[in-house]
Task: inverse folding
């Protein structure tokens, strides 16, 4: 075409060298490319953009926000320039070879970017669909991007060296070990993401606890190589995706779905405050509405047992008797069974643990009727506030290690005693 163009100019009476004709052909190609660019980006894309803004469909807006159509337009422009180079320039011209090579690289680049835009748009659309929120789409799309990038790089190298992509792929066999080393994390992340999804182990929004990585909070992103967790102190912890398969972690989703959060806390009772209840103590405790039925039933049972066995009750070692700590456990169980903030259809226990030098542990094991953190803490605090306040009614004391205040008070008492004795001797 370049030769015909030169001959046509000569027929018109113009004499130009091959270089001048080449420059004019290149100028013509550039002019046509600029005109096509103007039509695509100033007319067609603007019209489609206005249509998308008026549309209520999310996918149309997502495609324009991610610039997928503009990148497709650039791909078409590269194809048009490639065709023009073949039409206007000499087949044996080095300029045509260079222009077409650049066009191939241009087309490959913007095809890759268009694929990226398509995947990002699909991810934006899926984020609004509740049915797809549990799927690790970000990690899968990143895997597709990685594969597409590798394919485009191979095609680009083959275009530059002028060899078939199959030849380049055959040469990569020796580099497999290097490639596996370079892409170790993405490959492990891809496998881990598939396992997490297939086994429904983790979703965005789950409460994840993984002490080995200092993670304790909500999962905000599951990507190809990393999982991001927003901790309760608002810091962000990044965990390798494959670590969730190789290491253990705790997912609190089951607790949230059950609708109840566990209370497992104990109070330590001073062992020296444990004793049998006297008749006066029983009469006084019967005034408590939650204890009256229990005490009457237990009194009848104990009296019947002692009478049948004819125990000499003058000895405290004989027969069965009510204790203040046992009565306290029964009271606490009745209190929890009548508490509106406690789930009655889940495990509910008040148990006594192994005694030690720290006292006798009385443990509350129950589930609140809410999983919200603030409400859970309020219910738990209210229960133990009541426990601490009601203990003296049963003649019980909390075990507490002596503090500096206790030692100073003891030293002050001893000093006063010593001063009193000295005064008496004088």
Result:
């Amino acid at each position: 075409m370049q030769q015909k163009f030169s001959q046509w100019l000569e027929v018109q009476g113009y004499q130009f060298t091959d270089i001048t004709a080449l420059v004019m052909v290149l100028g013509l190609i550039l002019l046509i490319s600029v005109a096509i660019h103007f039509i695509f980006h100033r007319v067609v894309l603007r019209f489609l953009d206005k249509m998308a803004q008026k549309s209520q469909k999310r996918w149309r807006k997502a495609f324009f926000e991610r610039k997928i159509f503009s990148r497709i337009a650039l791909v078409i422009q590269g194809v048009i320039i490639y065709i023009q180079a073949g039409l206007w320039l000499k087949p044996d011209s080095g300029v045509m070879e260079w222009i077409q090579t650049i066009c191939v690289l241009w087309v490959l680049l913007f095809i890759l970017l268009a694929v990226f835009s398509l995947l990002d748009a699909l991810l934006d659309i899926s984020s609004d669909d509740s049915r797809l929120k549990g799927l690790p789409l970000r990690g899968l799309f990143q895997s597709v991007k990685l594969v597409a990038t590798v394919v485009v790089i191979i095609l680009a190298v083959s275009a530059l060296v002028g060899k078939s992509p199959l030849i380049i792929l055959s040469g990569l066999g020796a580099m497999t070990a290097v490639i596996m080393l370079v892409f170790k994390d993405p490959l492990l992340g891809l496998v881990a993401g598939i396992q997490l999804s297939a086994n429904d182990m983790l979703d965005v929004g789950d409460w994840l606890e993984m002490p080995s990585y200092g993670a304790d909070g909500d999962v905000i992103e599951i990507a190809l190589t990393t999982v991001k967790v927003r901790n309760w102190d608002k810091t962000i912890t990044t965990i390798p995706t494959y670590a969730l398969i190789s290491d253990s972690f705790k997912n609190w989703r089951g607790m949230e779905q059950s609708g109840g959060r566990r209370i497992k806390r104990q109070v330590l009772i001073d062992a020296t405050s444990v004793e049998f209840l006297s008749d006066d103590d029983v009469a006084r405790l019967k005034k408590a509405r939650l204890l009256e039925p229990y005490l009457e039933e237990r009194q009848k049972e104990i009296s019947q047992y002692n009478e049948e066995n004819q125990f000499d009750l003058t000895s405290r070692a004989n027969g069965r008797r009510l204790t203040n700590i046992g009565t306290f456990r029964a009271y606490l169980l009745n209190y929890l069974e009548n508490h509106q903030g406690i789930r009655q259809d889940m495990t509910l226990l008040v148990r006594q643990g192994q005694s030690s030098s720290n006292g006798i542990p009385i443990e509350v094991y129950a589930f609140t009727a809410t999983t919200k953190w603030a409400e859970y803490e309020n219910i738990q605090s209210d229960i133990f506030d009541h426990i601490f306040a009601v203990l003296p009614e049963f003649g019980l004391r909390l075990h507490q290690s002596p503090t500096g205040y206790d030692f100073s008070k003891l030293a002050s008492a001893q000093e006063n005693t010593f001063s009193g004795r000295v005064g008496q001797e004088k």
DSSP finds 16 helices and eight strands in the chain. Strands lie at 207-210, 215-222, 226-231, 236-240, 250-251, 261-269, 349-352, 360-368. The mean pLDDT is 81.
